[in-house]
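Re: duplicated header lines in exported structure tokens

Our pipeline writes sequence and tokens for each protein into one text file. With two proteins the header for the second block appears twice in some exports. Here is an export where it did not happen, for reference. First protein block:
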Amino acid sequence: MNSDNDLQIAGDILEVPHLLQPPREHPATVAEFAGLARAVAADRAQWAHLVQYDATTRWYHRLRTGPGYEVWLLSWVPGQGSGLHDHGRSSGVLTVLEGTLTERTERGTRALAAGAQRVFAPGYVHEVVNDSLEPAVSLHVYYPGLTEMPMHTSPHCEARTAPGTGARPVSA
């Protein structure tokens, strides 16, 4: 019985090879880069043993490179932050692996718990800070690979909150 909600495909789509796209060896779209970040995040064996914490400076490790992109692993002890910056001509995907990070932009402040993901375009200005009382780990995919990280000063970004006080949500 057919209804307005039925979707029917004539024949087997697998029998029409020209309609199937071959799987890519490396990501090429924003969705594929976000998927790469989610896949790496889900595979703790790839990254958990590499994480180190440094109270004097943010720790980072290049986890992987591919044609035109890089994957970085970063750790954040309480109080550490990136400073207000952009990523030059690179777009990126930020994925929180462990803990909670706070992202500040001129639009507001957002708490990013483990599993949260942010996608950004070239020129996106933000600050990432560990405002919690526990360490955090994040994964960053940059495409093209990161070649600069210009620092900014802006009265438009909100002032820092004390560690452990949390972040206010971004108003839509």
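Second protein block, exported in the same file:
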Amino acid sequence: MRLALYTGLILAGGYAGLTPALAADPTGDWRVADGVANIRVAQCNGSMWGAVSWEKQPGGRDEYNPDASKKTRPTLGMATLIDMKKKPGVDQWEGQVYNAKDGQLYSATITPAGTDQLEIKGCVMGFLCGGETWTRVGPPIPLSTANAMAKGAPKSAGAAPKAQAAPPQATTGATAPAPAAPKVAGAAKPGQKSAADPVGDICLLPEIAGFAH
């Protein structure tokens, strides 16, 4: 059985600059086998999750999903690797994979193979297993801020002290008010979506944050 999570998966290319120390890190963006999509893998609240982060042919829909309410949902941002837990003593994670070719969930494992390849294997009913290798196209991803957000931010130790009032000035005439400081545009929040990255932090996707497929 050949695993076809999106529309067929086998990868080409790699990501330069990675070191052997990152060999066991499955996070990052991975090109699927036939190059039609990238899957972004990140750790979300203790489990590895993966979602479609790029499509060669934009506008894909989950048309084979048996749930009629999901048949028209976009495949971009759709979860494919679901709640994968690390196996004790080995650099391997196991959970479920969503196969968009038939709209079904299968038991699966992911295993890093060096710094730039990720082996994925899925099984039907515990047998008839098949798999393929994905290729890294983006660096490992730091732990999502969504993990800290879920636990709640620490409370402030106390209110900031009030600023002392300035001493009164002599009133020899009206003085022009100081010009207001220009507003500085806020920096992009971690994981924030953008035109270049419409998916952003996958841990913030409703499907993953709510742990519902």
